Amino acid sequence: MTSTGERLPGGELTIGELAARSGLATSALRYYEQLELISSERTAGGQRRYHRAMLRRLAFVRAAQRVGLSLDEAREALARLPENHAPKAADWAPVARTWQRRIDAQIAELELLRRKLSGCIGCGCLSLKKCGLYNPDDSAADLGTGARYLLGDEPPTKEGAFRRP
Amino acid sequence: MTSTGERLPGGELTIGELAARSGLATSALRYYEQLELISSERTAGGQRRYHRAMLRRLAFVRAAQRVGLSLDEAREALARLPENHAPKAADWAPVARTWQRRIDAQIAELELLRRKLSGCIGCGCLSLKKCGLYNPDDSAADLGTGARYLLGDEPPTKEGAFRRP
DNA sequence: CTGCAACTTCAAGTGGACTTGAAGTCAAGC
DNA sequence: GCTTGACTTCAAGTCCACTTGAAGTTGCAG
């Protein structure tokens, strides 16, 4: 039994099969079930049998994680989607829109950091008050200005007087 | 004593001041010092006094975290920069370039996810074989369990809860 | 029917990045 | 010199998402 192929009648999956198909460890699946992210039926002997719809739920959870949600938040989001059938566009659209906004925000943040790093390549600073990286909460766009300190132009705040610890 | 203002002569900072200026908790600073991310001198009475250059190191560490590095990796990266003075362009450029590549990869991943979500708005699926979200093995699903809050964007519960098995 | 991989439960462990608590000491303003 | 807030250490705790281990059971091929 390779556990990868689906061979149960009725299209149900053992935990090993679900693991193989979802890319998650069996331990993770049991953990998810405990958290009620997925559910199963049991055989007479007590073994889990998963409906194929669980693959969809797992895909959802994985996507949720990538968007930055915790498993708890994923569970909440799942609760708003239909349990037994594939979500319809009407179910899905609001969730997807919310997630896209989060993704956009994340991308924007990364792009800001990227720009700051570019600036810092130019200035080699990390010591200047104006340096985006240095300044924790600047959020104010200092984007273009970075190239000012091009040639190791030393900062006004005399930093030179210090010796190492 | 508000602990925010700098008032020691010689420009040294108490741990409270460094905390206020860096935005980190004092406990985090002690922890960082333990990890040798920063260093201090001590007063006769045993209290820490931080050189202002530590602000620069902390800025670096914060940036490193946002790029997705662990504190250990941040320490390694720090080790390649000059300790006592602001890094020059030659010191900084290779680091910044490496980080930019990482950022680019992260942005690319997010953009892929975003596209997939767009597709799913259209199809309302999550159940179809062709659905990008559904299909698990499209590689590099690293953001999921990896560097999730590298954007500093709203950690799920308390400030600064990072994770990763 | 046997053998064995795959399954079961439950408790405890892991790892990263901190935080919290207890019990005590330091520094500075009055 | 007293008071008080800021500091000290060290051990232990927390959070999340799992993983590991032990000890036992199930299910299917041969």
Brief rundown of the structure:
The first copy, chain A, is mostly helical and 165 residues long. Chain A is 46% helix and 2% strand.
**N to C succession of SSEs of chain A:** HHEEHHH
The percent range for strand residues of chain A is under 5%
- Structural Rg of chain A: 25 Å
Helix content of chain A: 40-55%
Trace the largest sheet of chain A across and list its strands.
Answer: 1-2
Q: Using the alpha-carbon principal axes, give the shape of chain A.
A: elongated
Number of helices of chain A: 5
Largest sheet of chain A: 2 strands, antiparallel
The tally of beta strands of chain A, per DSSP, is 2
What's the assembly state of these chains? homodimer
Largest interface: A-B, 69 and 71 residues
Q: Structural class, from secondary structure content of chain A? A: mainly alpha
Please tell me the overall pLDDT of chain A: 72
**Unreliable stretches of chain A, pLDDT < 50, 5 or more residues?**
137-165
